[in-house]
Specification:
The complex is a heterodimer of chains A (about 325) and B (about 280).
Chain A: H1 2-13, H2 20-60, H3 77-84, H4 86-118, H5 124-136, H6 139-149, H7 156-163, H8 178-203, H9 207-215, H10 221-249, H11 253-259, H12 270-280, H13 284-315
Helix pairs in contact in A: 2-13, 4-8, 4-10, 5-8, 6-11, 8-10, 10-13, 12-13
Chain B: H1 11-39, H2 43-47, H3 60-69, H4 73-104, H5 110-122, H6 125-138, H7 145-149, H8 156-167, H9 171-179, H10 184-195, H11 197-213, H12 216-221, H13 230-241, H14 246-266, H15 268-277
The chains are: A mainly alpha (about 325), B mainly alpha (about 280).
Chain lengths: ~325, ~280
């Protein structure tokens, strides 16, 4: 970016010596072409991204209900109401809990599987494909498969538990189990993605480092893991943590299809609250306030991710 | 394929590797296996609670016929194809020229445009749902194909990705094309896009997977059953069946998951590349 900017400036202040008029004409033609080529994208980015985001902030400080003819400015009242609302607080806490279960487990399992796949030559593509499969399978449909799997009587999970003489909870209808179970589905879906990012990170570690470690006496597998692999994976690790956290904050499909936030709000999460307030209760102003909170969390995480990506580029 | 310096694993190490990976593979595949298994069984056998993967009596034909006829499942799939196809074509038509302008042309406001793309990358789509819903209502396109498509016709990620690839193409090629009398627009479509086709394929996979699987926006944008894309359709299917008739429901779920899974098995490398590029989004 910075380099582009500099060269652009240079070309403006010091036009090429070979005929100023022609160069100006050329520059004009180029600017015209750029306008025509980028014009549609500019208009659409403004209409579909920038203005809507600004609109969310504006709506969030009004008491507008969708369909109502009038609305008035209420300042931060929606936000005050939001943070006093037990349902929203529950939703926020549940989401954070969900993220706190999903992120370490997804990253840990993704790393373990990537290390195991990379540690031997055989069946690499096979294992990679299998573990990656859930990431691209339609979650709405797979949620239904999970529901059957977790069915209190005929699901294979409870059949197994029953045959072992263990208790058989109604996983998705029990306040204590519903959120962890949704987290398991989240982990199942995301670990292949973490694995793929780790596999790419492992490939990028220079082989000389392993040779050097060996010369230094780091012979055993675990030694090499501790001395070379894990430290070298540091930046990738941070990146995977944040990407996984972002996706976990956006949990919605499984909640909508399997629990609708129940039982007793035990699985109410941020995006589900956003959806219900905005599009079922049509409390537009209030829904916009929820949206603003969601936006702040996601943007904070994304900016952190951009900084890490930036640093990774400087390392290499 | 083994790089020198990484020691050969002992026999027991290899055995451990395969044991753990096979175990995790089985767990990862379990929901798929269970789904397909139930889709082959009769109601009686499903409620008999058995461990068997394959049915005693094959009920596949009945289940899949029910899924394809009792519910407009073919319609859901066709909607998915129409919506994903329209989104992808529009995204490429809008993003490739803009990316070319950003990568190769000099004009005032280029930095502003690039900043706009970066801001777009930063915003999760769920945040836009409320204002875009109001916009769709105002212009009267709620509950149409247009409502399903319009929020996605410009992709900041697409512009960003294409710009990266176009920047790597030598300027000399652009100059040569201009000397040959090609217009800027034909440089985009006849020089840039063909050279950067791996980026186009990766983006296409990213886009189609994202929109085939999307539930959030369709849930807001359409109500009519004949417009529902697959995830919304399968949800409606489930709510109507009320969990009583697992066989056809699982058959429907299997049919909806199948296209992407089959495509993935045939073009693994492309899928993994395309979807991990999406990590920056």
């Amino acid at each position: 970016m910075a380099v582009d900017f500099a060269s652009w400036r240079r070309s403006e202040t010091a036009p090429c010596p070979s005929g100023g008029a022609q160069a100006r004409k050329q520059a004009l033609a180029e600017a015209l072409a750029a306008g025509l080529l980028a014009g549609p994208a500019v208009l659409l980015l403004l209409a579909l991204f920038l203005l809507p985001v600004l609109a969310v902030f504006v709506i969030a400080v009004t008491d507008w209900q969708f369909g109502a003819r009038s609305l008035s400015f209420v300042g931060l009242k929606n936000f005050a109401e939001l943070f006093a609302d037990p349902v929203f607080r529950r939703s926020l806490v549940n989401t954070v809990l969900y993220v706190c279960i999903v992120v370490p487990a997804t990253v840990g399992l993704g790393l373990l599987i990537a290390l195991l796949i990379e540690s031997g030559p055989r069946l690499r593509a096979f294992y990679r494909a299998i573990h990656f499969l859930p990431y691209m399978a339609t979650l709405a449909a797979m949620a239904i498969a999970w529901e059957a799997l977790l069915h209190p009587t005929i699901g294979i999970v409870n059949q197994t538990l029953a045959s072992l003489g263990l208790p058989t909870p109604n996983w998705l209808r029990d306040e204590n189990t519903v959120l962890p179970v949704l987290a398991v589905i989240g982990i199942w879906q995301g670990l292949g993605f973490a694995m793929v990012l780790f596999l790419a990170g492992l490939k990028a570690i220079p082989v000389d480092l392993y040779d050097a470690a060996e010369v230094d006496g780091a012979d055993a597998t675990l030694d090499r893991l501790r001395v070379v692999t894990l430290p070298m994976l540091g930046p990738v690790m941070m990146f995977v943590v944040i990407v996984t956290a972002l996706r976990a904050f956006e949990v919605f499909d499984t909640v909508k299809i399997l629990t609708q936030g129940g039982p007793a709000k035990a699985s109410e999460v941020l995006l589900h609250t956003l959806y219900v307030e905005s599009f079922e209760f049509l409390r537009t102003g209030y829904g916009a306030a929820v949206t603003v909170v969601f936006l702040f969390i996601v943007v904070a995480l994304t900016l952190l991710q951009a900084r890490i990506l930036d640093r990774r580029v400087h390392y290499s | 394929m083994k790089p020198p310096g990484r020691r050969a694993f002992s026999w027991s190490g290899a055995a451990l590797r395969h044991t753990v990976l096979l175990a995790t593979s089985v767990l990862v595949l379990l929901p798929f296996v269970w789904m397909v298994s139930l889709s082959l069984k009769s109601p009686g056998e499903i409620f008999q609670a058995s461990f068997s993967v394959l049915p005693d009596q094959w009920h596949a034909l009945e289940n899949y016929t029910a899924a394809l006829t009792a519910q407009p499942l073919p319609r859901f799939m066709m909607n998915g194809v129409i919506v994903c196809g329209a989104i992808l074509i529009l995204q490429i038509l809008v993003c490739a020229p803009a990316a070319y302008a950003l990568a190769k042309l000099r004009f005032r406001g280029r930095e502003v445009l690039f900043a706009l793309v970066l801001v777009g990358l930063l915003i999760p789509h769920q945040v836009l749902a409320l204002p875009l819903f109001i916009l769709a209502y105002q212009i009267g396109i709620l509950d149409t194909y247009a409502a399903l498509i319009f929020p996605f016709i410009v992709s900041p990620f697409g512009i960003f990705l294409f710009r990266q690839f176009f920047k790597a193409i030598p300027d000399d090629l652009v100059h040569a094309a201009r000397l040959d009398g090609l217009s800027e627009a034909s440089i985009v479509w006849r020089v840039m896009v063909p050279i950067a086709w791996p980026a186009v394929v990766a983006f296409a996979i990213f886009s189609v997977v994202a929109h085939w699987n999307d539930l959030f926006w369709p849930l807001i944008a359409v109500r009519s059953e004949e417009l529902m894309p697959p995830p919304l359709g399968v949800m409606a299917f489930k709510n109507e069946e009320a969990g009583s008739d697992y066989g056809p429901l699982m058959a429907g779920a299997t049919l909806i998951v199948a296209p992407l899974v089959v495509a993935f098995l045939f073009a693994q490398r492309w899928f993994v590349d395309g979807l991990s590029l999406g990590a920056v989004k």
